[in-house]
Amino acid sequence: MTRLLDARTSQNASIAGSMNGVGLTANQNVLIGQIGLTTAGAEGPIRVQLNGVASFFVFSGGFITLTLFAVRGSVATDPLVASNRLQLNPGATTPTNLFPLYLICSDYNPAPAEEIIYSLFVNSSINVNRVGPESFNGCAYSD
Fold first, then answer.
1. CB distance 134 to 119 below 8 Å
2. Is residue 94 pLDDT above 70, yes or no?
């Protein structure tokens, strides 16, 4: 029978537009959420389900790449669990637009630990504004 080991939420901004346009500098990995899931004593394979969201206000209609990615650890160079990318092509967007980016993923059979840290990062190819919502959630299960 499946057993819930732990569930956590990292809530940075829960309402659309609530961040007032926090700047995101081009080509920098910025931490927007972090959770620690307790898995000590788990029997059988551990399964972790993660989901996250971030929303952006983009000023130009030029080529833009927005990336949302989760790692097992606390820094952007730790092992990648999953990523999602949104690419906007030149001329395809109007001068001002809001873009949400979602990440829904799983981490199958990480080593049991007192606490497994997962972190959610965002990156953009040009300067954009983070406007909210921003949220990161995770649940760990075992058999």
1. no
2. no
Residue 50 · residue 99 · CB < 8 Å: no
Radius of gyration (C-alpha) of the chain in whole angstroms: 16
pLDDT 10s digits, 59-83 = 766 788 999 999 999 999 999 999 9
Domain ranges of the chain: 3-142
Q: Hey, which CATH number is domain 3-142, 3.40.50.300, 2.60.120.760, 3.40.50.720, 3.40.190.170?
A: 2.60.120.760
How do residues 11-34 score in pLDDT, each as one tens digit?
988 888 888 778 899 999 999 999
pTM of the full structure: 0.92
